[in-house]
Amino acid sequence: MAKEQFTVGIIGLGLIGGSAALRLRATGFASRLLGHDSNPQHAARALELGLVDSLATTEEMARASDIVIIAVPVNAAPKVLQQVMAAVSETALVVDFGSTKQRLCALANGLPNRSQYVACHPIAGTEYTGPEAAFSTLYAGKVNIICDREHSSAQALGRALQLTAALGMRPRYMDSRDHDRHIAYVSHLSHVSSFMLGQTVLEVEPDEKNIFDMAGSGFASTVRLAKSSPAMWAPIFTENAANLLAVLDRYIANLHNFKELIAAGDEQALYELMKKINVIRKVLDRETTDETIKTDKPETIKQA
User: Fold this and answer.
1) CA 273 to CA 125: how far, in whole Å?
2) In which element (H, E) is residue 4 found?
3) Which whole-number Å values give the CA distances from 59 to 63, 131, 192, in the listed order?
4) Is residue 49 a contact partner of residue 58, using CB atoms and an 8 Å limit?
5) Which residues have C-beta within 8 Å of that of residue 75, sequence separation ≥ 6?
6) Mean pLDDT score of the chain, rounded to an integer?
7) What's residue 73's pLDDT?
8) Per-residue b/e over 216-242, b at no fewer than 16 CB within 10 Å?
9) Which of 29, 203, 211, 284 registers the highest number of CB atoms within 10 A of its CB?
């Protein structure tokens, strides 16, 4: 039996959308790739790099595509979703790949063709942005969280699972409210921490050469996320403010407690606290299954 192929439209041609395009082309899932980006330079570069076959307006893409992937900053997603859902065909699937879900799902629930929409959050990314940051194995072996599936039709969910498999991910289902709360803890907080570490070091160590010469791998890995796009992360922080503020209060309290132990010179208490925290290793160092596709580094995109 011949493999089913789809016309896929992608709105947002940076790391997230561009990487999806590369993977869907490589696997043969997409017979045709349409693209749109609000940044004309990004759109032109994505076409130049061969991420998509042609460019289209949001409405043109919605009408012509079997699947529309919305990969834009979360503050732009509501308007884009409404535009797409107003023009999409009756059999098409619409997904978004944003990092927050509760408000967007609430908006989608008021649209007449809500059943064609599946809210997705691929747990994948790097600190790099733009079309040139895209690579085909970004999603390999990662989790795709599908939210509020009870509002999507069986046909839409089935196609979303086909898309998930084509990208090399495995699905997990979650309520949108729970998603936003949990993601604040395990993703959004780490980005705040990284940005603030970067700010602190820049303030107390103004000599850039000292930072470059003395920064070890620990600093580099911890502050890596501070290289992330402010255009993407500022809207995420404000969109998920309630959940993020709650966990920030706990984080700040823990920092204060740690500071007090250092000030008191209580080495034993510091040791015991860090030993207790070491349990996180058991969670993060779990071996991947045989089915998980692994990648060591992004592939190089051939420059046009």
Assistant:
1) 31
2) none
3) 6, 22, 36
4) no
5) 235, 238, 239
6) 89
7) 94
8) eeeeeebbebbebeeebbebbbebbee
9) 29
Task: Please report where in the chains the tokens 């132990």 appear, as a residue.
Answer: 261
CA dist., res. 65 & res. 56, Å (int): 11
Q: Measure the CA–CA gap between 119 and 152, rounded to whole angstroms.
A: 9
Which CATH number is 182-284 given?
1.10.3660.10
Distance of CA 40 to the CA centre of its chain: 22
Residues 34-68: pLDDT tens digits?
Answer: 999 999 999 999 999 999 999 999 999 999 999 99
Looking at CATH, the fold of the domain delimited by 6-174 is given as Rossmann fold (3.40.50)
| pLDDT value of position 282 | 80
Tens of pLDDT, residue by residue over 4-28, are: 899 999 999 999 999 999 999 999 9
According to CATH, where is 3.40.50.720 located in the chain?
Answer: 6-174
